[in-house]
């Protein structure tokens, strides 16, 4: 009898399936530009996807084929509901269904806003959907997680939507002007010119959501204000949608100052990544402190994002994981060195055995 350990593993069970979307327009929308959506499914799921007219033929491992069928049917449902499907939607659709969502429609339908290019801005993950819902339901919301998870972008979209629906009268966008390697004093120009590079990402997001001329007019009229956090001191912000970005770089005092600016009929969204603090060593982040002391206050909500919610280039997710892994390894190595050092200090010193008196006599 052969040893079970030497038996060859059985070949993966293969299967095939067919999905018929019944009309050419939907089939073309599912394929994407130059079949990029189908190619992405093949790479991510390990299946073969072929198209013949309105039919999609799938083959590969049975579990992967079943998942691909479900993905295609969900994407078809989104297209029929009037939601365009792009390559990044397929990428996020795989994540959303893979994390247990019943359907993509419940997460990704219902746009927050139509951007200046007439493209719908909507949640692309379960965490993003909960984040958007929490902004609608609460007056103060913290969005905490790694770069690329859409924290600031969706907050901006919600702010513009609230302004368009006349739920608020103005939008205020703030950032702490904390150096990440460069020094403000070495930048050319006056104070406003020095801090503008720190505010540029907020301007970029704003211009992505409305025509540049419209955005410039609103900024000129003071309906939209983009300013360093320091400019918030001493103000009361009524009828406003206020966003504090890069909040991990606030001090405890700055965070308290910002949160106490909120007036009547206003919302505040605070976003940041507690793993990317640029404050001086030993200085406590106001975002980390707020998460600890405000978590049980009714009306304040904390939305947490992970690397699984990254909606930028797929490699961004891998970069975040690699850095997290390296940081854990570094901390473990430091802990091992400290433990070894403590053990050596605690060990009794070796002493030379004393010479008996009689041996000392010549």
Automatic annotation (TrEMBL):
Residues 338-362 are annotated as: Disordered. Keywords: ATP-binding, Cytoplasm, Nucleotide-binding. One of its GO terms (cellular component) is cytosol. Its main location: cytoplasm. It is found in: Cytoplasm. InterPro entries: P-loop_NTPase, PhoH, PhoH2-like. It holds the Pfam family PhoH. Residues 120-324 form the PhoH-like protein domain. GO terms for molecular function: ATP binding. Belongs to the PhoH family. This is PhoH-like protein. It comes from Myxococcus stipitatus (strain DSM 14675 / JCM 12634 / Mx s8).
């Amino acid at each position: 009898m052969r040893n079970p350990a030497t038996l060859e593993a059985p070949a993966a069970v293969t299967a095939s399936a067919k999905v018929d979307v019944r009309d050419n327009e939907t089939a073309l929308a599912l394929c994407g530009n130059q079949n990029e959506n189908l190619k992405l499914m093949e790479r991510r799921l390990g299946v073969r996807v072929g198209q013949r007219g309105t039919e999609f033929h799938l083959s590969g491992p049975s579990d992967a084929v079943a998942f691909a069928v479900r993905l295609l049917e969900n994407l078809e449902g989104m297209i029929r509901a009037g939601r365009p499907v792009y390559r990044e939607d397929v990428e996020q659709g795989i994540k959303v269904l893979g994390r247990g969502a019943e359907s993509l429609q419940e997460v990704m339908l219902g746009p927050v806003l139509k951007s200046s290019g007439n493209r719908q801005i909507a949640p692309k993950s379960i965490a993003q959907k909960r984040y958007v819902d929490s902004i609608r339901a609460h007056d103060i919301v913290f969005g905490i997680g790694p770069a690329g998870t859409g924290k600031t972008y969706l907050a901006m979209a919600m702010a513009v939507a609230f302004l368009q629906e006349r739920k608020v009268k103005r939008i205020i966008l703030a950032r702490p002007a904390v150096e990440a390697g460069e020094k403000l004093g070495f930048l050319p120009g006056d104070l406003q010119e020095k801090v503008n590079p720190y505010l540029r990402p907020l301007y970029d997001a704003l211009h992505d959501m409305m025509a540049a001329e419209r955005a410039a007019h609103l900024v000129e009229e003071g309906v939209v204000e983009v300013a360093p956090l320091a400019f918030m001191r001493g103000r009361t912000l009524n009828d406003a949608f206020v966003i504090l970005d890069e909040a991990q770089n606030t001090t405890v005092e700055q965070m308290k100052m910002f949160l106490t600016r909120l007036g009547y009929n206003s919302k505040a969204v605070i976003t940041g990544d507690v793993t990317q603090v640029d404050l001086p060593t030993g200085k406590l982040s106001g975002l980390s402190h707020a998460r600890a002391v405000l978590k049980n206050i009714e009306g304040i909500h904390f939305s947490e994002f992970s690397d699984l919610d990254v909606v930028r280039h797929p490699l961004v997710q891998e970069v975040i994981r690699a850095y997290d892994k390296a940081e854990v390894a570094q901390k473990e190595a430091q802990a091992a060195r400290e433990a070894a050092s403590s053990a050596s200090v605690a060990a009794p010193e070796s002493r030379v055995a004393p010479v008996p008196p009689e041996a000392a006599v010549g």
